[in-house]
User: Fold these one by one.
Assistant:
Number 1:
Amino acid sequence: MQRRTLIKTLTCLGVVSALPFLSATSFAASSHAVSVDDLPELTGELTLYLGRGEGGLYEDVLNAIKKRNPKLKLRIRRGPTAALANSIMAEAKAGVRQADLFWAVDSGTIGQIVGEGLAKELPSDLTSQLQSNFRFSNWAPISGRIRTLPYNPTRVSVDKIPDDIMALPDSDLSIAWAPAYASFQSFITAMRMLEGDKATTQWLKAMNKKAKKYAGELGVVMAVERGEVDLGLANHYYTLRLKSGKPDANLALAFSKNDAGCLVNVSGVLALSENKTASDFIRYLLSKEVQTYLSGEAYEIPLAGQLPPPTGIPSLTDISPPEIDLTKLADIRATLVLMRNAGVL
Amino acid sequence: MIHRITRWPLSYSFSLVIAFLAFVPVIILITLASDSAQMFDARNLDILSNTLLLMFFTALGSVAIGVPLALILTYVHLPWQRFWLILFASPLALPSYLGAFTFYAAFGGGGEIASLLGVTTPEVKGLFGSSLTMVLYTYPFVLLSTRSALNSLDASQVYAARTLGMSLLPSIWFVVLPRIRNAIAGGALLASMYALSDFGTPAIMGLTTFTSEIYVEYNAFGLSQAAMLSLQLLVVVALILYMESKVKVNQERPGQHLTLWFNHWQTKLLILGTLPVVIMAILLPLGVFSLWLWRDGLEYFDVQYAINSLYVSLLAALVTVIFALPLAYAATKGRVGRILERITFIGFGIPGIVMGTALVYAGLQLPFLYQTLALLILAYVLRFLPLAVGTIRSSTENLEGSLANAARVLGASPKEVYQRITLPLTMRGVVAGAALVFLEVMRELPATLLLGPIEFETLSTYLWRVYEAGYFGRAAIPGLLLFFFSALGLAIMFSTERWGNIVSNEGASR
């Protein structure tokens, strides 16, 4: 599948360069930030499936886009990312298409939809706005996040934290986690790919004995800060957000090395209908303004237009994330079965 | 004139269609589940045991609270007797997920109580939390069924026992309780039925039961996995309903009434001892929502949620009553009618989450219905039809036959009899039925969650989203509004004064 996508992308690029008039000059293929001022106005009706906004910040983005494009009628269905992905697949099977766009908080779910062949090809001048290792032909990553180990420096010193995620259950640290959260599940999928199903099951079972379960990862980070536990498993931005509201919070970030524990994952969007408004909508999400907002307010890592990462995290080059093809995190179902059988879900 | 012995009344035809509709969800679930690979595994055993434990503790707890309260409220002479009765019955009107939500947020380290008073309370979640919540909101089933049994009891035997030297408590234990055993069992079964089919409470408390797991499976794996669990749940439901139908409440001839006169401080102590129940079930949730309102304000609340709730509830109440009228009428006409009426009672036993699962699939097969308000309304109608039929029926029971026959003898056509006699006389029941359906729809959560059209957020679904996202403060207004509407429902329940009916209807409608 990977090879085919690559070839498709190449062909697409080839066509575009052969017929230069096809690539609109205003968003010519460059990885420089595009301002919303240079984007066409959105008109008509769009239905967006939104895989649950992160703290209402995605809602702010959508509201800003709506405000800027009064002729756009945007209908939004909200729900957990995995549930919406199931709906999209069931709708496709039954031949009732509802969604034009799907904004998911996790690339595994996107890979699932892409794997079903439901995602439409995006214009190559759009995907080329993204950093080169985040270019895909039929979906667009919006923002990046790193798996981290937030810890409470008053309870544990950083040298006590293992830099191997697999060694975590053997440590004597108390741990908080949120296994129902989609990003966590993608992390488990990554672990399955790197360490195998057997080791992952053992890890889950061992962790399940000692870890305290929370509904979401903001809860995890808050529990670490309160000192209920020594260490948590969470996306990086929860820590940064909490610290922005409470600068003296007892919270710091640790990273594991070259394993699933420091996976770099993305939220992303894909188009389910061949529709210019839909792809133009994605351009808005990749615009300088939205990307700057997501990094400044949501502390997510901007992926389009070479903007700087949020303050407070090391740059992507300073950590050692595992080498994993993000679209291969699509095997969520097997992950869920494995987590269920381990008694975690 | 030709004398027709057997005639197929028009109302039968309507009823037949509606009865068929009531069967549809079950058929859909069977079709859907046949796709599912896993029939039963170790995981299901966990779910089953959690569900059964929750039911067991709910039944046990509701008897432990409901029976003593019923004894006090029936036998002890209290000032403002009726006030206490309504107060102690009132948790019945509240959806238990409101309680679960606020308990979850209030207790534990970092909970509202800890941050407000600095006292760390133990966490309320899991099996303990779910059982506690269920008991607090279902004990009125036992209270009301026990009380009505106590009222019909002849107290002469208690007096005899006391005269022969038995003290009060043993005489209640040995003379009263054995005679109301069935009523208590009936109430406890209703309570455990509620625990079995409620979705919000175990989901919020993080307990894996059938209902909460159906939602998890629906989200993670899709419809067919959810359908398999739904069918398993329906089997348990059927068992409970069967047990319930076997419980016969025996009627005694009315006789002497027992009244206990306690002195002043004893009465006070008695009331003080029972108040914690009300404080937990009503004042705590009310307090937490008010706290959130005070802290977070009105900013995030969109009036549209309330308008949507009102709109869909009104519409559902209207349609349900229109569907219920021919059924209630047919049931008075003969055996076939009664059978058809009985069939629509299936809706009673189908928990909301199961109904949602079935109808989502129905929508996918019939694209013109998918994600429409019509499908959501259909779900409500199928779920709450028995509630409306029951209320309308109870108002027609006393006019069965004679008046209508008199009119017929005097030359009125069946149509005229219906318009001029039957309908006006059932109006009271129609309005009460519509009101009950209206309020049930208002509070319904799981089916609305699954079937709500795009951009159609109601009070209860918004409350759920806020819970999932962790922005508890924003639940203040929808929470308080749901409280208000529940209080309205309570008022209606008590004004119709048909306790037994209402209790059994309420119980099975969840």
Note: Chain B has one domain: 17-33+41-509.
Number 2:
Amino acid sequence: MIRLDSIERVFQVGNENVYALNNVSLKISQGEYITIMGPSGSGKSTLLNIIGLLDRPNKGFYILDDVNTTDLSDEQQALVRRHKIGFVFQFFHLVPRLTASENIELPLILAGMKPEKRKDRIKLALEDFRLADRAKHRPDQLSGGQRQRVAIARATIMEPQVVLADEPTGNLDRASGKEVIEILEKLNKKGIILILVTHDPDLGNRAVRKISMVDGKILDDTLALESSKYRLSDK
Amino acid sequence: MKAEDILNFSIRASTGYKFRTILILIAMAIGVASVVVLTSLGEGARQYVTSQFSSLGTNLLIVLPGRSETTGGPPPLLGETPRDLTLDDAIALKRSSAIRLISPISVGSAPVSWKQLEREVIILGSTPEIYEVRHLSMSLGRFLPSSDPRREEALCVLGNKVKKELFANQSPLGEWVRIGDRRFRVTGVLAKKGQSLGFDMSDVVIIPVASAQSLFNTASLFRVLVQASSREAIPRAREAILKTIRERHDGEDDITIITQDAILSTFDRILNALTLTVAGIAAISLTVAGILIMNVMLIAVSQRTTEIGLIKALGATRRQIMHLFLAESIILSITGAFLGLIIAFTGVLLLTRIFPNFPILIPSWAVATAVGVSLLTGLVFGVFPARRAAKLDPVQALSRR
């Protein structure tokens, strides 16, 4: 489903070239649950941004659903993002002047869906994420956990194949963090690829496949272990 | 993305940042209002002058004795004075088919008295035709009866003000007033008519031209008013006048002809230029408003960087983001223009209350231009911020809290 082939992402800092991603190759199949861990500046977020088509690699290929996305124009990439990828951020990034349901509606509006159809979908999503009574509230009237649930509802309203979460619990207390993770994992059970970037080892260890990164390189990928020793039920 | 959704989103964005929205609206409203009010004033001035001239009469030519132009050739050996324009000259003009009416005018000033009251008044010697040529109307009695203009008759018509001051509320009809050393019988009183070109038609006494000439002891006319038979006939009438007078004055062109159209079009040009100048100055304020819109939209873009990054992550194309921000600046400028129109219309309404005699009219072209220009500024000055928003790098935009 997702294939990264010797991806390189270089940033220029002064006269120096800094490799945020250095020759990264990765294969992810449908319905996988992956956590990416590593110290700050190890390239986790850059990797996530490249998978999410927010950033372009300087070298290498990224193939999503048999399409080489590196060949696509900005507009085409935007369409791929719209239909196949959902983002969940640490700081929620809700539009402050819009209500919860309007925030969830945004991707549908961008896609040009008809208002009646939008309403039905939003109603369903609000119920799914237990936000029905919060629909008319603005973000500043919601708790952190509720905000992140709105953000997840927004990320999944277009029924994407991949959900990318960058420290989704980083700004939440333990209880609501746990709730958010459980929601994300539930989505994963339905067949969505879930990629989670985190600092928290407890979170990192929940996934079947754990990738750790250092200095723009993949240091460890538990998939390699699994293929030699099948221990899915170990946890 | 649907047009109504773009509209809705942009309206929500504008109302979400009230202070900045109000600032833009004020700037735009002032710009539009000043364009509309100032052009209305200019247009009003033009109409005022035009109406003043047309109150002189229609298809009018004015013949003056003496020449205002010089032609080449050696200076005359003997001093040359212009010949008088006489009553016979005026009557001779009547023969042309291009001329419908003539009204010779002789002017002087004389004391007018009735019983113990006496006033110094301007005396107009003319013929009954002046009634039609100058669009006069009567409030009492009749105008001078038509007869041979060469015949003296002891009849007079009083201006409204003269009648009031000499007779107060009594009827002057049939009374004899003394003008200079002669007595004239009053046949009528002119209706009240405003000033036209500083000449107050209510403060005159009109008597037959022959009587005026003998009263003031002159054979010369002050001028001859000529009404051409139609607007198209004005040039022909002009030629006919020149030819007739030349024949009668031994081949000399010693008269000056002023056509009403010439005066009118000159004033029209001047006042049009004035209106455009004023509108131009006002347009500068519209441009300033446009620059303000650009400024505030740029601030909006940097304020909403994360929002832009977010909707990019949600799959908004550059074009969509362009549209969102352009729609916002256009909505702001249109609303501002609308407010400006309201201000302008109330302002003009107030002005017409304060100066009821001065015709202030909002020309429709001014409204159309003001709205058009404000739309254009919104579009032009909105493009740069919108492009900046569309070009934002989503990763950087989202990395900000």
Note: The helical segments of chain A are 44-51, 74-84, 100-110, 115-128, 144-156, 174-189, 201-204, 222-228.
